[in-house]
């Protein structure tokens, strides 16, 4: 049973953000569990949790993640990953993940997760990918039975501090016709550049397999350069610190005058999508150089300059959020209207790892949904 998400209204209208068709590009499977599910799965595995009540547990995740440090933020995943070690647990988590996306009006999503972190109970890499795919398909069936339509693809992720990149890249390609649509590297960014996984990225390029790379969150411009040069990334996971390569020369009441560096100009001109996650970026300190409020986030600067910005949750559990909530927060901070919200969804649709024709169909569905709103 899917809990009804909190509803958010577009200011000045009776339109619900929740009802608008949306695309989710950056959403971690192990960051999207329901607290009640964690408790049930932990009980079956005799695991001790930091809180036994679902509301208290949800608050614990949000409070623990709100640290200003990506390293501390990532520590909360020890709990969620621990309950995702069995086939049954993976199927349930993936199914509910899709159920919750559907309830938030998402019509296409890409879910990223690291199979190498789910092997402690004896499952193989292929078995965990198959279990997650089974859960995804059950979730899409649930949506269809309820009169909704959603499509979800897996982004198989390698942990950047580990040495299994090539093995995980091979796993992703092996399942490319069975639900896996792309590859990612995640985990501690600072000190673990994309070049460490060069063998994996070479393999993926040789097999024409799309890549997104976490970069520009806990590390700066060099990390982004590495994602583009070594990783051949088609999108940047977060990428918010690309704004460090933008020099603000002066501002007046109506305009901001800037100079773009070579790297930021390249990202803009090539329309390399930025998978921005506003609430998460605040929690991890990714935007500390600009401030500590959502209104300080360089999201609007990047949008106004024509970068391919998209809106994401990163981890719905840790940030206690949904895409609808993120859109509402951005609208409140920057005064966006319905046309801006549509642009963000069309940007995301264009950046998906779907075939061109499917991306065009997705864009049409978004445009139709906004026209009918």
SSE topology sketch:
Layout: E1 22-28, H1 35-44, H2 54-65, H3 70-75, H4 77-82, H5 87-103, E2 106-113, H6 125-145, E3 151-159, H7 165-174, E4 180-186, H8 198-206, E5 212-215, H9 221-229, E6 235-238, E7 246-251, E8 256-260, H10 262-269, E9 273-276, H11 278-284, H12 299-304, E10 309-311, H13 316-319, H14 323-334, H15 338-351, H16 356-372
Helix pairs in contact: 1-2, 5-6, 7-8, 15-16
The main sheet comes to: 4 strands, parallel
Poorly predicted ranges (pLDDT <50, ≥5 residues)? none
- Tell the overall outline: globular
CATH superfamily, called what? Metal-dependent hydrolases
CATH structural architecture: Alpha-Beta Barrel
Percent of residues in helices comes to 40-55%
Give me the CATH fold name.
TIM Barrel
**Adjacency order of strands in the biggest sheet:** 1-2-3-4
CATH class: Alpha Beta
Characterization of this structure:
This protein is of the alpha/beta class and 373 residues long. The protein has one domain (22-360): Metal-dependent hydrolases (TIM Barrel), CATH 3.20.20.140. It contains 16 helices and ten strands. The strands form three sheets. Strands 1-2-3-4 form a four-stranded parallel β-sheet, with helices on both faces. The chain has a four-stranded parallel β-sheet with strand order 5-6-9-10. Helix 1 packs across helix 2, helix 5 packs parallel to helix 6 and helix 7 runs parallel beside helix 8. The longest helix is centred in the middle third of the chain and has 21 residues, at 125-145. The protein is globular, with a radius of gyration of 19 Å. It starts with 21 loop residues before the first strand and ends with a helix.
């Amino acid at each position: 049973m899917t809990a009804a998400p909190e509803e958010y209204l577009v200011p000045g209208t009776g339109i619900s953000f929740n009802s608008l068709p949306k695309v989710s590009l950056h959403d971690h499977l192990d960051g999207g569990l329901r607290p009640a599910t964690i408790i049930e799965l932990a009980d079956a595995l005799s695991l001790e949790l930091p809180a036994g009540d679902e509301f208290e547990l949800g608050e614990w995740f949000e409070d623990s993640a709100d640290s200003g440090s990506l390293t501390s933020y990532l520590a909360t995943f020890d709990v969620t990953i621990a309950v995702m070690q069995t086939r049954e647990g993976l199927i349930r988590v993936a199914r509910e993940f899709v159920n919750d996306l559907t309830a938030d009006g998402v019509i296409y999503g890409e879910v990223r997760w690291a199979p190498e972190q789910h092997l402690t109970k004896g499952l193989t890499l292929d078995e965990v990918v198959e279990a997650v795919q089974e859960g995804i398909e059950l979730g899409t069936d649930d949506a269809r039975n309820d009169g909704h339509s959603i499509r979800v693809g897996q982004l198989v992720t390698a942990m950047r501090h580990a040495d299994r990149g090539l093995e995980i890249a091979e796993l992703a390609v092996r399942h490319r016709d069975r639900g896996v649509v792309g590859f990612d590297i995640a985990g501690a960014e600072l000190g673990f550049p994309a070049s460490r996984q060069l063998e994996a990225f070479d393999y993926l390029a040789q097999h024409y397999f799309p890549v997104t790379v976490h970069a520009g969150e806990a590390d700066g411009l060099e990390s982004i350069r590495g994602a583009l040069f070594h990783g051949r990334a088609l999108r940047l996971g977060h990428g918010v610190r690309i704004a460090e390569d933008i020099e603000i020369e002066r501002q007046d009441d109506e305009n901001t005058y800037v100079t773009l560096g070579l790297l930021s100009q390249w990202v803009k001109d090539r329309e390399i999508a930025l998978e921005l996650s506003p609430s998460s970026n605040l929690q991890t300190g990714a935007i500390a150089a600009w401030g500590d409020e959502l209104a300080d986030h360089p999201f609007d600067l990047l949008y106004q300059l024509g970068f391919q910005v998209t809106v994401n949750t990163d981890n719905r559990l840790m940030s206690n959020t949904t895409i609808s909530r993120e859109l509402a927060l951005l609208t409140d901070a920057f005064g966006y209207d319905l046309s801006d919200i549509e642009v963000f969804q069309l940007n995301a649709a264009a950046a998906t790892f779907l075939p061109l024709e499917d991306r065009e169909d997705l864009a049409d569905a978004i445009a139709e949904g906004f026209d009918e709103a």
